[in-house]
Amino acid sequence: MENLEEQQYWDRQTQRARGTQMSFKFYKEIAMQLFKETQGVHVVQQMLGCEWDDETGTTEGFNNLAYDGEDFLVFDMKNTRWISPSPQGASTTLNLNYNQGHIKYMKRYYNQICIEELKEYLSYKRSTLERTVAPEVSLLQKDPSSPVVCHVTGFFPRGVMVTWQKKGEDHYDDVEWGETVPNEDGTFQTTSRLTVKDWQTEDYTCVVQHKSLEKDIVKRVIDWEIRRNQDIETRGYSPDGNPEGSGPSMGVIIGCVVGVLLLALTVVGVVVWKKRGAGYGKTNTSGTESENSELKPAVKA
């Protein structure tokens, strides 16, 4: 975005954000009057955006406002009108629906402007969204009597299939699959654990399938393929599949990633390809009025 957009874009977005801030103050004051409240901390939230299916070409839009964690105003895209799940919002919907200029703009924004912006943003990100990185696969074991762990790391996109086979046939007994978690470089890693005592005498293999691979990666469970404590470095994973070692733990890494994402949502909003369901949280309405209590809208597209 920084490299591809000119200064006029950033000026326009800044003006839009300032207008939104003023609108939120207005919405909050109106809502407090309608709910007959004169003091306390109150929160107005807005969730708006658009959805585009690049396979079918269908589009969809949404714009919901909430007051103190409850839906207050909802734009009905199908019928092109505002509705309110709350009795207190009835008079507001009448005023909004009476303004036909506003309704026409809403229809144009979600069917055209928002979709064009979404397609433009996707073109900027396409090299990242469509890139593929092949996984690295290792067999790990704490000691010869411990479970054998198939550790798959460094792959992108996230989707990966890790299975076990015994003598060429799929094997599901005594198998435990781990979660897929992010690496610091934006790739992913996962593990699958096989707990059997006869791995030295039977023919076990770990099979990894991923979009980046022309053919599956197959790791045979034999002694010389397995790495153990004395010679292993696995990006924070020990031979038993648990995060440990000199580097930061995966719990810390995931916590940092989530923290950054939440900050990004608060400051600028997020453009997403597919709309995901989200609800509003309750807020504590006790206390004194504060300018900092207002939340800026999280824009989804």
TrEMBL record:
<dbReference type="InterPro" id="IPR007110">
    <property type="entry name" value="Ig-like_dom"/>
</dbReference>
<dbReference type="InterPro" id="IPR011161">
    <property type="entry name" value="MHC_I-like_Ag-recog"/>
</dbReference>
<feature type="transmembrane region" description="Helical">
    <location>
        <begin position="250"/>
        <end position="273"/>
    </location>
</feature>
<dbReference type="GO" id="GO:0006955">
    <property type="term" value="P:immune response"/>
</dbReference>
<feature type="region of interest" description="Disordered">
    <location>
        <begin position="281"/>
        <end position="301"/>
    </location>
</feature>
<protein>
    <recommendedName>
        <fullName>Ig-like domain-containing protein</fullName>
    </recommendedName>
</protein>
<keyword id="KW-0812">Transmembrane</keyword>
<dbReference type="InterPro" id="IPR037055">
    <property type="entry name" value="MHC_I-like_Ag-recog_sf"/>
</dbReference>
<dbReference type="GO" id="GO:0005615">
    <property type="term" value="C:extracellular space"/>
</dbReference>
<dbReference type="InterPro" id="IPR050208">
    <property type="entry name" value="MHC_class-I_related"/>
</dbReference>
<dbReference type="Pfam" id="PF00129">
    <property type="entry name" value="MHC_I"/>
</dbReference>
<dbReference type="InterPro" id="IPR013783">
    <property type="entry name" value="Ig-like_fold"/>
</dbReference>
<keyword id="KW-0325">Glycoprotein</keyword>
<keyword id="KW-0393">Immunoglobulin domain</keyword>
<keyword id="KW-1133">Transmembrane helix</keyword>
<dbReference type="InterPro" id="IPR003597">
    <property type="entry name" value="Ig_C1-set"/>
</dbReference>
<dbReference type="InterPro" id="IPR036179">
    <property type="entry name" value="Ig-like_dom_sf"/>
</dbReference>
<dbReference type="Pfam" id="PF07654">
    <property type="entry name" value="C1-set"/>
</dbReference>
<comment type="similarity">
    <text>Belongs to the MHC class I family.</text>
</comment>
<feature type="domain" description="Ig-like">
    <location>
        <begin position="135"/>
        <end position="218"/>
    </location>
</feature>
<dbReference type="InterPro" id="IPR003006">
    <property type="entry name" value="Ig/MHC_CS"/>
</dbReference>
<dbReference type="InterPro" id="IPR001039">
    <property type="entry name" value="MHC_I_a_a1/a2"/>
</dbReference>
<dbReference type="GO" id="GO:0009897">
    <property type="term" value="C:external side of plasma membrane"/>
</dbReference>
<dbReference type="InterPro" id="IPR011162">
    <property type="entry name" value="MHC_I/II-like_Ag-recog"/>
</dbReference>
<keyword id="KW-0472">Membrane</keyword>
